[in-house]
Model the fold of this input.
Amino acid sequence: MYLVRGVHQERYEAMLKYAGKSILDVGCGSGAYVLKFNDEHKEYSIKGMDYQKFDSWENAPGLFSLGDGNTLKFEDNSFETLTLFEVLEHLPEPLQALKEYFRVCSKNLILTVPNCELAPAIKKSLLTYYHYVDSTHVNFFTMDSLVKMVEDAGFKVTTRYFINKISLEPLIEDAYDVQSSFLKRKAWSMLKKSKKNDYYITCLIVADKIK
Done:
């Protein structure tokens, strides 16, 4: 759960494409998605919940509540869609939490977690994702293990893809001391032409509730 975060474009687009008209953002942090939807998309009814209160919640009284991500204080089928952005990796019993989310949603779930499947080239370079050094992360998912757990909770995963493409530009620019804007453009033009793989740090899935 990000404590303070803005609206991430790829997550936001997934909400617009897949969410129902009533949404609960679990682990909402400062509430950026709730506030944006409330301001710009009046056709949606959206609320946010987190384990601690934020000053920004005062901008929309009544839309936020305190709560535990493992046990939701809502009736069955209270919201069409639950969103969970960077939440499951923090919870001690993620499968039980997913079963709780299954109970509370009526349509689907949209969630993201860190992608913890390191490519061989990343391992050989001795690079690592920050997820592995965050002491609050207690679960480490690959796309396949995430899909399995979500489906074990009763959902059917209908969409799965990666977001947050890794950029090595800052590292290479620092390593080679590339200062000239011309050299930067030239170097990255050559690299893009020869690039074989893209690497992403986040898994995103949409899962329908099977009734």
About this structure: The chain has one domain: 9-166+199-209.
